[in-house]
Amino acid sequence: MPESLRLLLFGRDNRVGRRLVVLVVAFSTAITLFISVIQLAVEYQGLRRAIDRQLDAIAVHVPTIAASVWSFDADQVQRAIDGLALLPDMAVIRVIPADAGKRWIAGRGLDGDSDSVVRRYPLTYQSRGQNMEIGTLEVVASLEGAYRQLGHLALSIVLANGLKTVLLVVFLIYLVRRLITVRLEAMAEKVRRLVPELLPLREVVEARPEPLPEGLGELGAVSWMLDRTAEDLATAAAAMRQANEDLERRVRERTHELESFSYSVSHDLRAPLRAIDGFSKILIEDHQQQLDEEGRRLLAVVRNNTARMGQLIDDILQFSRVGRQDLNLAPVDMASLVAAVVGDLQQAWAGRRVEWEIGPLPVVPGDASMLRQVMVNLLGNALKFTQRRDPAHIAITAEADGPDWRFCVRDNGVGFDMRYVDKLFGVFERLHSSEEFEGTGIGLAIVKQVVSRLGGRVWAEGRPDEGAAIFFTLGKTRT
Amino acid sequence: MTQEGKFGNAVEVLLVEDTPEDAEMTIRTLNKHNLGNKLVWVKDGAAAVDFLFGQGEYVGRAGRDGLKVVLLDLHLPKVSGIEVLRRLKADPATRSIPVVVLTSSTEERDMKECYELGVNSFVSKPVEFEAFVKVVAKMGFYWLLVNKQPPH
């Protein structure tokens, strides 16, 4: 069998196909056999009945033959039985006279032990009112012809069934390939690629070009590939765990580095700064006489700037602390938090006339100390930028906004130009000169940092000389 | 500035500080208020431990008796301030000596650790000189004049 035909019929060790074909062919053959037997039996009955009818019909000729026998017309008898012998299936026709005289015989005779049917007809003659038996007509019909016909029928049944089976097998193989094999192979291939596609990890991809073992059949192949996939998944999960651990370790290392850096900043930068400030002051105190007014002014500039740098260092540290401090999540009552902050700020800015408008504020999930820092920075800014207003007006409100609370701190201070709104929340970004308003520009950056860590957004609206509004959102439920 | 032995056993303040400028400012401030007469300054944690336990360089010299306060920086060469504090508070003989951590650090981590080790006070050095002077002077007054210690 050529390779291409073998492939067409069975595919590559096509187990499902082959099994299906064998079963269908066996079942179909059994049914065909059963039906054929019934068909042949029915056919045989029909043929037997035809022969019987033929024999019945011969009875018509019996009186004529009897008359010829009676009249000893030997030629006439012979002609009559020769005529009968020509009828289909008639093997032997004999006339046996009762007085054991001359017999007549016709027909081609029987071959060996062929099956046959024998019918005898009494030859009678009516003479002077009484029936006389003058002999017997014996007819032997051969079943050979009937058997031959049945044989032909059986042969045609077998040939037709054989052809049908071949066609059925070809169709079945086509169907199996088309509907099952091809899909199973596609499925197997998909399964095979699944893990490397989903988890493009080096460990899995490198282990992949493993040849499919021979002789598994389609189902075996799918099962084999599922096994490989399960192994790959285990490998991938382990690799993922490893990668996660590596990542966590690296984050810990980086965090540690960052903490060390902050620590160095806080310690190492502050010490020399303190020395600059201290020794400038000692110079002023202990060597007054040698310094003229300009000298003292210059030293004051030095000291102002050391103070400013000290503030910057403190701000950087605070900013970095907000970023890496663990969140201490608990319900925070914003109303009492704001009341406390306002109380503190009023003391710090005693003498200012401020109209506070504090709306109903919700309890939110958050970190109390960080949210306190947010409110200190926002309200501190509001107080700072309303310095030239009398009275200053500062409103703190909160509104439900879908799943969030939207807080707003609004003032009637100097406001800002919306063109620079992007700079507002940057680290050390300032929209006013330090002569106008003091500060390093860290306050809103810290606000943004805290709000982002709590999963909220922050934005601002304002117009020059018409006040500013800072908005931020906090989820109503913990996210 | 190291004057150990000068006062016999009468050292009242042990200043552990590696930054000479900070030490000078501290000593100057204490001197201005007449609080720095009986002060010993050491520049690293190892020397502080030697002084407190009368070992190494300090064998048989002025020791911890009569010590009213240890002013301890945290960021020190050789042995860290935290370690000095740990050893001091771990030993029953030195546990009762008041220790004030005087540091540039504002790290909560440091503060927490110091208090867990039993520090008596934790003071952050202000950058600004006036504030620094005020803090050092207050501290000197309190530990040298106000605070009462158990008898040795």
If you had to describe this structure to a student in words, what would you say it looks like?
With 479 residues, chain A is an alpha+beta fold. A five-stranded mixed sheet of chain A has the order 6-8-9-11-10. A four-stranded antiparallel sheet of chain A has the order 2-1-4-3. In chain A, strands 5-7 form a two-stranded antiparallel sheet. In chain A, helix 5 packs parallel to helix 7. The longest helix of chain A is centred in the middle third of the chain and has 70 residues. Chain A is rod-shaped, with a radius of gyration of 59 Å. Chain A starts with a helix and ends with a strand. Chain B is built from five helices and five strands; from the N terminus they run E-H-E-H-E-H-E-H-E-H. In chain B, strands 2-1-3-4-5 form a five-stranded parallel sheet, with helices on both faces. Chains A and B meet through helix 7 and helix 8 of A and helix 1 and helix 5 of B.
Helix share bin of chain B: 25-40%
> How many DSSP H or I helices of chain B?
5
What is the radius of gyration of chain B? 14 Å
N-to-C span of chain B: 27 Å
Overall structural class of chain A, as computed from helix and strand content, comes to alpha+beta
Helix-strand makeup class of chain B: alpha/beta
Number of strands of chain A: 11
Helix/strand order of chain A: HHHHEEEEHHHHEHEEHEEHEE
Instruction: Give the strand content of chain B.
Output: 5-15%
Keywords, please?
heterodimer; A: 479 residues; four-stranded antiparallel β-sheet; 11 helices; 17% strand; rod-shaped; B: 152 residues; alpha/beta; 5 strands; globular; disordered N terminus
